[in-house]
Specification:
alpha+beta, about 25% strand
Length: about 180
């Protein structure tokens, strides 16, 4: 299996030393509202204890978000289940398409493209405290891709984080983790 290169939509700089201005982790309601408005379906959301972190056994789609200086201000990891289910719901693909992707442990291009748009619009929930501008989606790593070292460290919790379980009506559940790095 070959993995494509991450999609780079700009210039980013990782500053583990803490020079980033900070966005805040969005509350439950704006996240729920964003998924419902995009997918046209009811979505339930709950906090979960288990962290959403990509590993060799847990495929995730990871988006990095940058501020106006190109500094990473947020990371979002969605497990394969949420990526496939939200991607299918957005594209009006029957739920069996998402189930097949999850069973095969691979996110097809059409579902990935749809979930990429979800991550892109998710940027509207992150506001840079310094400039009050929204962070922008910088890069998306597909399930199975290796994250750069700094991003891998940040998604494992070097910053504030919250993890959620979302259930998309008619499609099923998946998990989402949000990290605001220090």
């Amino acid at each position: 299996m070959t993995f494509p290169s991450p999609i780079d939509v700009g210039v980013a700089t990782f500053h583990p030393s803490g020079t980033n201005t900070m966005a805040k982790i969005p509350d439950h309601k704006p996240i729920k509202d964003l998924f419902e408005s995009l997918l046209g379906r009811d979505v339930t959301i709950a906090t979960q204890e288990e962290r959403v972190v990509p590993t060799a056994r847990r495929a995730c789609c990871v988006g990095t978000y940058v501020n106006g200086h190109g500094d990473v201000g947020a990371l979002v990891a969605a497990d394969l289940e949420l990526s496939a289910r939200a991607g299918a719901a957005l594209g009006l693909v029957p739920p069996t398409g998402a189930d097949t992707a999850i069973e095969n442990q691979e996110l097809p291009a059409a579902l990935y493209d749809n979930f990429f748009e979800v991550l892109n619009i998710f940027a509207s929930l992150f506001v840079d405290e310094e400039t009050e501008a929204n962070l922008k989606l910088h890069q998306v790593y597909q399930p199975g891709m290796v994250l750069p070292r700094t991003a891998a460290m940040q998604i494992r919790g070097l910053g504030s984080r919250e993890d959620f379980r979302l259930e998309v009506d008619g499609y099923g559940a998946g998990a989402l983790g949000i990290v605001i790095p220090f």
